[in-house]
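Marked as duplicate of an earlier ticket. Keeping the data here for the record.
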Amino acid sequence: MKSNIGPSFWGQDAPSFATCGAKSGDAFVEVGMRQTPINIDNKLTTKVNTAALTFQYQDAPLVVSNTGHTVELEYPAGSTIRLGQFASSGTVNWSQATDEFQLAQFHFHAPSEHTIDGKRADMEVHLVHKNLLGDIAVVGVLMNISSDTSLLVDSIMNIAPLAPGDKGVEGVSFNARQLIPENRSYYMYSGSLTTPPCTEGVRWFVMRNPITVSPFAVGRCTRSSLCSLVTEVFRTTTGPSYPRTRERWSSTGSSPPPRCAARMRRASSDPRMLG
């Protein structure tokens, strides 16, 4: 289902989209209170010593999809993330069912959906995971233009079809771990899907450190309309109901309890995307 009237009115499109909220006259009526994306204000984050985010990604064939609204790569079963170390193989226990998330797909946004201290990155990749209970966790990695570029992102954008469909390179594989920065400190908060139905309860891990991409990758992503754009920013609001952003550092430290970050919503009219 498509919205022809933009994100300010998503909540009116269907009863199942009510969490997205909608305008009523000149005011915006909030429904969901933990909506993504957000602006991460470093002054308002709480530093905590949580477990490290562990990645256990397997190689996958390089098959790139143009979904009609973004570049997406589906990932075969068997690649997971976990807060802390992975348990030994054997019978699945409750911790594995709730805290281990399997990578399902990843896709790109240009410019970034999240901002840090009010600044957008040139691109952002969302790696979407699910656990055995169906809960969603998304790892967001910001990307900035540099001469030291990601060959993987260049390859993906180079072969991405300009019309909806799939395109692969026979015999070529890759590993999504190449999209994860070496320093794996992260911001963590409870948010939502960024398009209808704007479902909340999504666990977000936004990596503190960006990776670098080429001008070619960003240009092809945007000029060829291969990546969804952030074209509308609204509801810059703070308050106790907004997502609380926590920050995992490699060192200890503490700061006052967080106040909340600004909310934003991108203006893509296609609600099918997760994350």
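See parent ticket for discussion. Helices lie at 10-13, 94-99, 151-159, 215-223.
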